[in-house]
């Protein structure tokens, strides 16, 4: 009798341990979202996010001041605490900037905003290109910080603050407030760049990118190489009448490539222009490296440009799945989003939109249920109005290692510059090399 009882107790203990192990294992699976995946719906065959219907038509009706086919379900009509409504006006007339920076900033990031004002957000960076910079803020109960923001807004007149709580999960509100301001107060800008305040940005490369986004930066390399080869040919044939370069060839290159994209290319471009102006033969080789050539300003000529109605929505494009493990900062349950994939979306840390894209996204957002992640939300809205995000490797959602100005030659934006002093140092060096 003794042995069977001991054996029975042993078996009971083993069963309890096994049961506990299974329970713990199942709890872990649930915690990491394994079971959630079993109940997800297929994005590619069953995606339908409220509202359903002809969203492009509804959005266009609101844009034209007409009554839409269905009533809007989402509104971002928060009150402006500070509104730099003058930014895109000159007295009673609208200004048409080439580019407007909409910088998402936290209330206490005063030093970051000042660093941006002195670097890539400096509005007079180019004499022939109109650029505007606006900082997007929410509010809080911190009255001391608010007093400092009031002073900042009065001093710099570039703070757009609305009365929503300034928290991470309200970034969609902050983004859409920026869009609403752009539509109402700066509707004639050709391009808008939505960017966080911990980014390095090359304004010069942004302007280069929007001229030919599909082939950036390859088109710059091809243009520089064409200019370099012709300038070298001029140098080799200097004083040799039989091998002289035809001025028509030089004229064609200058017409096709009116802008140089590096210090060396500026010298080569000046060399070609001198050849056209010379009454007899090419300019002297010594003149090609003259001080005048070295200091010749690079004008941001716009001969090469996209159509005004282009729907450009560009940046680093992701195709990924929702985070279902509960430890994630970006955890999303099935009630909030039940499909197994996100729509293709652009990292909202830094993205560029044309005027038409921003307008369509803004008005379509009125018919799209709010979502707390702004990049996902814009991806959903873009899908509803059939705007395909354009991917570029020159937007870095993580920090790009800086190893000298040449390493940032084509970089448009890089995350990770939360130190204002580091931003100022890197930007100054890259600017001196002609890439910022």
From TrEMBL:
InterPro entries linked to this entry: Glyco_trans_31
Gene Ontology CC terms, in alphabetical order: Golgi membrane
Family assignment from sequence similarity: Belongs to the glycosyltransferase 31 family.
GO BP, sorted A to Z: protein O-linked glycosylation
Molecular function GO labels: hexosyltransferase activity; UDP-glycosyltransferase activity
Lineage top rank: taxon: Eukaryota
Pfam families in the cross-refs: Galactosyl_T (PF01762)
Record-annotated membrane-spanning stretches: 20-39
Principal subcellular localization: Golgi
Protein's UniProt name: Hexosyltransferase
Documented EC number(s): 2.4.1.-
Protein topology in the membrane: Single-pass type II membrane protein
Keywords, sorted A to Z: Glycosyltransferase, Golgi apparatus, Membrane, Signal-anchor, Transferase, Transmembrane, Transmembrane helix
Subcellular location as annotated: Golgi apparatus membrane
């Amino acid at each position: 009798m003794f042995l069977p009882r001991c054996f029975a107790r042993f078996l009971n203990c083993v069963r309890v341990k096994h049961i506990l192990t299974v329970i713990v294992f199942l709890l872990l699976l649930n915690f990491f979202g394994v079971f959630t995946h079993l109940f997800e719906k297929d994005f590619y065959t069953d995606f339908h996010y409220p509202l359903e219907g002809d969203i492009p038509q509804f959005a266009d009706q609101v844009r034209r001041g007409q009554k839409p086919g269905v009533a809007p379900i989402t509104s971002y009509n928060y009150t402006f605490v500070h509104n730099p409504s003058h930014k895109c006006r000159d007295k009673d007339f609208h200004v048409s900037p080439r580019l407007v920076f909409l910088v998402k900033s936290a209330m206490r990031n005063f030093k970051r905003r000042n660093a941006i004002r002195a670097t890539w957000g400096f509005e007079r960076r180019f004499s022939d290109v109109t650029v505007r910079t606006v900082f997007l803020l929410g509010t809080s109960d911190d009255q001391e910080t608010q007093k400092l923001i009031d002073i900042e807004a009065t001093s710099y007149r570039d703070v757009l603050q609305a009365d929503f709580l300034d928290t991470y999960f309200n970034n969609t509100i902050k983004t859409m407030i920026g869009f609403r301001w752009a539509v109402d107060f700066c509707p004639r800008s050709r391009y808008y760049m939505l960017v966080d305040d911990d980014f390095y940005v090359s304004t010069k490369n942004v302007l280069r990118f929007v001229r030919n986004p599909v082939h950036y930066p390859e088109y710059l390399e091809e243009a520089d190489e064409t200019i370099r080869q012709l300038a070298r040919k001029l140098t080799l044939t200097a004083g040799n009448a039989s091998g002289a370069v035809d001025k028509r060839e030089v004229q064609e290159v200058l017409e096709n490539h009116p802008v140089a994209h590096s210090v060396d290319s500026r010298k080569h471009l000046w060399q070609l222009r001198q050849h056209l102006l010379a009454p007899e033969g090419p300019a002297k080789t010594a003149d090609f490296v003259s001080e005048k050539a070295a200091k010749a300003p690079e004008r941001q000529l716009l001969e090469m440009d996209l159509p005004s109605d282009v729907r450009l929505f560009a940046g680093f494009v992701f195709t990924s799945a929702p985070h279902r493990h509960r430890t994630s900062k970006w955890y999303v349950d099935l009630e909030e989003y039940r499909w197994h994939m996100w729509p293709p979306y652009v990292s909202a840390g830094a993205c560029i939109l044309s005027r038409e894209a921003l307008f369509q996204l803004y008005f379509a957002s009125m018919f799209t249920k709010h979502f707390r992640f702004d990049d996902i939300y814009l991806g959903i809205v873009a899908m509803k109005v059939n705007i395909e995000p354009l991917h570029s490797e020159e937007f870095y959602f993580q920090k790009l290692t800086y190893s000298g100005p040449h390493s940032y030659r084509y970089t448009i934006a890089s995350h990770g510059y939360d130190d204002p002093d580091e931003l100022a140092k890197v930007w100054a060096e890259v600017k001196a090399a002609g890439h910022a």
